[in-house]
Structure formats: structure tokens, C-alpha cells
Amino acid sequence: MTDVLAAVLRSRWLRYAIFLGVLALVPAVFTRVPFYTMSVGVLMAIQAIAALGLIPLTGHAGQISLGQAAFFAISGYTSALLTTRWHTNALLAMVAGMALSAAVAYLVGTFIFRAQGQYLVLATLSFGLLVSYLANQLPLTGAADGIPGIPALAPFGFTISGDVDMYYLVALVLLFAVIVVDALLRSPVGKALTALGDSPVATAAAGVSIAGLRRNAFTLAAALSALAGSLYAHWSTYMDPGQAGILSSVQLLIIATIGGQRLVWGAPVGAFVVITFSEASKTLIPKVIPQATGNYEIVVYGIALIVILLFLPRGVGGGLIGLAGRLARAVRGREATAVD
């Protein structure tokens, strides 16, 4: 038992294999357990991809962004427009959406990272509100009606027609994205991001361009959110201004925080916890409070966030890893006592 836990904690490839196994089990579990359906599984994986970019940006570099949903929407609308109006291949449209979002993020990051602290949060919030307003007003984006009829993805001639097929696709994309972000955080660039979050002054004194580092982390977060946005557009076959709303950006930040901002596993764990709470609240709250109306799952997000910050400051993912470490040490100590 001790050896297994120690091996899991040490070997990242073993952790990837366990994560792959968990992802593979989702269809078997989600079709048999209340609150869950395969569409919920697809949504969890897409939200996890979108929130993953906040791990290096917010968890390590210490930069809070409330504009992630804007990049999600920019890429989703790009895919929608290219495929419905100009009949572009869906995969090419996704690449175009990611490239446009990354370019916008790089340009925006050049200016907004002159601000720090609460001013940076307000700058990203303003950018998100601007994109949301434009999506809600422009005829190009369908204004409040959005863009319907977005074609499904068809990689290598195989059309992704159902939630199960789409789940397997987004699960593989999520696994690949986790491996890439984990490799980045282990690289010198990732260590520089961590140093930047811990002490910007010391990092700048070491000769590192902290503005460039922040801008690159912001661009990476935007690219991952954009990838999720295009996947969402081709899965739901519909894009509307609500995807660019401030509530969507807040939800992504809550997902990363609840899962664990310092851990690459924080995004998938957080997506599972937050969307589970959301689905449970939609089912249970009307039974307990029949008069309840509106977006009451926001209250559940707030309560969950407060509880996690009070009792699990490293997030659910950090709490699970800490528990596994304590369990391994306890078993090892018991075995040593038995030998003595």
C-alpha cells in the first residue's frame, strides 16, 4: 500500500495513466448515477480545458484574469462564422479561432500588464465586458439570437454525432493539454512563472522580463480557453452571447480555485466538483424551495468557494494529495513500528 501511494506521488506518468483510466470510466459511471449524463461529462471536460490555462497564469504567476470567457467566445464565434458562412473545414476553423484568440490575448496583454493587482483584474473584467457587449450587439455574431447550425466535428472523416463520441474526443484533448501544461510548469519557464508569483521583484532582479512572462502566460491561458470555446461550439452547434459573459469567467476562476490553482490536476478536479454542485442544485433546490427561480446555482458556487478556501486552501486536489501523503507516512510508520 505504501509503495503504491509513494509510486503514484513520485511518478507523473503513473498519474497520467490513472487520470486516463478515470476518464475512460466516466461513460460507464455517468450513465448510471443521478445528476450525471454524458452531456454533463462533455461539459466538465470542456470547462476543465478552459480553466487549465489559469493554473500557470493565476496559480503560479499570480495574475488574476476575469476575461477568460471572452477568448472562449472569440474562438467559438470564429468557428461558427467560418463553418456556417464560408463552409470552412471545422478543424481549420478551430485552429483559426485559437490563433485569433491567442493574437488578441498577446496584443491585449501588451497593454494590460502595465497594471497590477486590482487594476489588472478590472482591466481583464473590462475586456470581457467589451467582448460580451459586442457579441450581444453585432449583426455579424447574430446579436442576442447567436449563431445556430454550427456543424459537428468530423476528424479524419468520422463525424462526432453523439455525446459519448464527443466525450472521448474532449477527454483525449484534456489529457493532452494536462500533459503539455504539466511539462511547461516543470520547465525553466514554469519555474520562472512560480518565482514571478512568489516574488516579482526578485524575479525582475534576476534579469527575467516579468512583463513578457505575464503576457505569455496570459496568451497560453487564452489559447486553452479558445480551444475549449471551439470544441463547445461544434458540440452544442450553437453560440450565444452568454458564453462571453462575466459569470462564465468567474465560473472558470472558481473551478481553478476549488480544484487547486497550483496543481495541473486542479482544473479537472475543480470542473468535476463545481459542475456536480451545479447539477445537484438544479435538481434539489426546487424540491426544497419551490419558489426558487433564476440562476440560484451561483449561490452554490459561492458557498462551495467559501468552504474550500476555509478548509482546503490548496483546493480539493491539494487536499487529496496531502491526504495521500499523510496516509503513506502513517502506513510507513506503522510498518516500521511492527518491524521494531
From TrEMBL:
Membrane protein topology class: Multi-pass membrane protein
Name assigned to this protein: Branched-chain amino acid ABC transporter permease
Localization annotation: Cell membrane
InterPro entries the UniProt entry points to: ABC_transp_permease (IPR001851), LivM-like (IPR043428)
UniProt cross-references to Pfam families, sorted A to Z: BPD_transp_2 (PF02653)
Residues that span the membrane, as ranges: 12-30, 36-57, 64-84, 90-112, 119-135, 166-185, 217-238, 250-278, 298-324
Example of a GO cellular component annotation carried by this entry: plasma membrane
Transmembrane helix recorded as keyword: yes
Taxonomic superkingdom: Bacteria
Keywords, comma-separated and alphabetical: Cell membrane, Membrane, Transmembrane, Transmembrane helix
Classification of source organism: Bacteria, Bacillati, Actinomycetota, Actinomycetes, Micromonosporales
GO molecular function annotation: branched-chain amino acid transmembrane transporter activity
